[in-house]
Amino acid sequence: DQQVKQNSPSLSVQEGRISILNCDYTNSMFDYFLWYKKYPAEGPTFLISISSIKDKNEDGRFTVFLNKSAKHLSLHIVPSQPGDSAVYFCAASETSGSRLTFGEGTQLTVNP
Amino acid sequence: NAGVTQTPKFRILKIGQSMTLQCTQDMNHNYMYWYRQDPGMGLKLIYYSVGAGITDKGEVPNGYNVSRSTTEDFPLRLELAAPSQTSVYFCASSYLVLAGKEFFGPGTRLTVL
C-alpha cells in the first residue's frame, strides 16, 4: 500500500525554467511533509518542509505547495540550475517527530 | 567531522550468507536509523535507536538485527541473506527526533544472488 506516490519517475527541464515535482498521498493523518534531494552515491539531504497548517513554504529558489483537500503537494524550483539535477523524494509523517513515509522519487535533469 | 560513514560501499552475497553493515557517526547524535531503498521504491525504515542500548523495530525489520553498544555505532546484521534483501541501505543519525534533521550516510549497495 503506497501511501505516498510520485507518479513521474523522471523530469527534464531547461536551465532557467521552472521545475515542478508532484507528490500525492492517501493517508489523511499525514500532517507534515518534506522534500529530500539525493545525488548519486550520496545519502538524501533535507530540502524543505511544510506543515498542514500552511499551504505554501518558500526557501530561496524552492517553494513547496500543499493542497490538503486534494492530498497533493508539489515542489517548485525557480530558476532551475544544472546543479539541481538529482533524485527528489517527497515524504510525509503524522507529526514532525514521527516515522516518515517516502515516495518513490523523481529524477530531475536540468539541461544547460 | 566525517558525519555518517557506512561500510562497505558495495557487497555481493550468496543466498544464506550473513554479513554486518557498519554505520558510524561522529556528531554525538542519540538517534540513529537504518533504511532500505528497493529499486523504484521509497526508503523504508528497518530499525532505529534512541540511544546506546535502546533499539526498536521500524516498518520492515524481518531478516535483520541491530545493536547499539555505543553512541557512535549502529551496525545492521543480516542473517541468512535472501534475494529480497537486495537493496541500497542507508544509515542516518539525528540530534532531534524531528523529520528533516537527519544526516544520511552514502549508502551500501547490497546484492544477494
Describe this structure in words.
The complex is a heterodimer of chains A (112) and B (113). The N and C termini of chain A lie far apart (38 Å). In chain A, 36% of the residues are buried. Chain A is globular and about 40 Å long. In chain A, the strands form two sheets. In chain A, strands 2, 4, 5, 9, 10 and 11 form a six-stranded mixed β-sheet that branches. Chain A has a five-stranded antiparallel β-sheet with strand order 1-3-8-7-6, with no helix packed on it. The model of chain A has no long low-confidence stretch (mean pLDDT 95). Helices cover 0% and strands 54% of the residues of chain A. Chain A is mostly beta strands. In chain A, a hairpin with a 7-residue loop joins strand 9 (86-93) and strand 10 (101-102). Chain B has 113 residues and is an all-beta fold. Chain B contains no helices and eleven strands. In chain B, the strands form two sheets. In chain B, strands 2, 4, 5, 6, 9, 10 and 11 form a seven-stranded mixed β-sheet that branches. Chain B starts with a strand and ends with a strand. The chains are: A mainly beta (112), B mainly beta (113).
β-sheet strand percentage of chain A: over 45%
β-strand percent of chain B reads over 45%
Cα Rg of chain A: 13 Å
For the termini of chain A, the CA-CA separation is: 38 Å
Supply the helix-strand structural class of chain A. Answer: mainly beta
Q: Helix tally of chain A? A: 0
* Counted beta strands of chain B: 11
Shape of chain B: globular
Mean pLDDT of chain B: 94
